[in-house]
Amino acid sequence: QKEVEQNSGPLSVPEGAIASLNCTYSDRGSQSFFWYRQYSGKSPELIMFIYSNGDKEDGRFTAQLNKASQYVSLLIRDSQPSDSATYLCAAGQNFVFGPGTRLSVLP
Amino acid sequence: DGGITQSPKYLFRKEGQNVTLSCEQNLNHDAMYWYRQDPGQGLRLIYYSQIVNDFQKGDIAEGYSVSREKKESFPLTVTSAQKNPTAFYLCASSIFRSGGRGTGNTIYFGEGSWLTVV
């Protein structure tokens, strides 16, 4: 069973801080990785995807991929209360989703 | 506007009743998916389809059925055999099934349907 693991949280950070969300995956053959944000009662929306080792930046978001360690992370800089949501990691060709990490940004 | 439309948004099912959730997309995507999400939990794959007239079981297909007669449509029927159907149901689509490197293939979701057993 190919799995994607995430700490369920809640992860609480103060407003303006950097939030760091982590994800590990079991399938070494995974080539593509995705981060989604899901507000309570809403459907997931794509934040960004990453294919290559290293960092990929998009505004306040940075995705980091380390294939040797089978680890992908999402950093949110200057966290805002509106970033409070559940963040889902998905990996691989078959879009296997992790359970999500609940983030709470405190004003 | 291009997107994925799910209906109804809220649905109530009586014991022993079959209900059907509609999913339509105008993104010209080949692949479509149904996920179930229980409160505070992640997404679990029910069924997926890579092409018209073909579909595959996901991790929790028991008690559910689907059809894919048109590229745009992928309805999900929750049968009476599904004993605990209360959940949030998400339909999704992607250009094709494989999210391979460099393809730009990502999965997009509809707004979801809430199903409650009464």
Detailed description of the structure:
The complex is a heterodimer of chains A (107) and B (118). Chain A has no helices and eleven strands. Chain A has strands spanning 4-5, 11-14, 19-25, 33-38, 45-50, 54-58, 61-66, 71-76, 85-91, 96-97, 101-106. The model of chain A has no long low-confidence stretch (mean pLDDT 93). Chain B is mostly beta strands. In chain B, the strands form two sheets. In chain B, strands 2, 4, 5, 6, 9, 10 and 11 form a seven-stranded mixed beta sheet that branches. The radius of gyration of chain B is 14 Å and the shape is globular. Chain B starts with a strand and ends with a strand. In chain B, 36% of the residues are buried. The chains are: A mainly beta (107), B mainly beta (118). The A-B interface holds A 31-32, 34, 41-46, 49, 51, 88, 90, 92-95, 97-100 and B 33, 35, 41-43, 88, 90, 94, 97-103, 105-112.
Characterize the overall form of chain B.
globular
The low-confidence parts of chain A are: none
Describe the largest sheet of chain B.
7 strands, mixed
Average residue-wise pLDDT of chain A: 93
Mean pLDDT of chain B: 90
Roughly how much helix do the residues of chain B carry, as a percent range? under 10%
Strand content of chain B: over 45%
**Radius of gyration of CA atoms of chain B, rounded to a whole number:** 14 Å
Largest interface: A-B, 21 and 23 residues
Share in β-strands of chain A: over 45%
Distance between the termini of chain A: 40 Å
Features:
A: 107 residues; six-stranded mixed sheet; 11 strands; 0% helix; globular; B: 118 residues; mainly beta; four-stranded antiparallel sheet
Blueprint of the fold:
The complex is a heterodimer of chains A (about 110) and B (about 120).
Chain A: E1 4-5, E2 11-14, E3 19-25, E4 33-38, E5 45-50, E6 54-58, E7 61-66, E8 71-76, E9 85-91, E10 96-97, E11 101-106
Parallel strand pairs in A: 2-11
Antiparallel strand pairs in A: 1-3, 3-8, 4-5, 4-9, 6-7, 7-8, 9-10, 9-11
Chain B: E1 4-7, E2 10-13, E3 19-25, E4 31-37, E5 43-51, E6 54-57, E7 64-66, E8 76-78, E9 87-94, E10 108-109, E11 113-117
Parallel strand pairs in B: 2-11
Antiparallel strand pairs in B: 1-3, 3-8, 4-5, 4-9, 5-6, 7-8, 9-10, 9-11
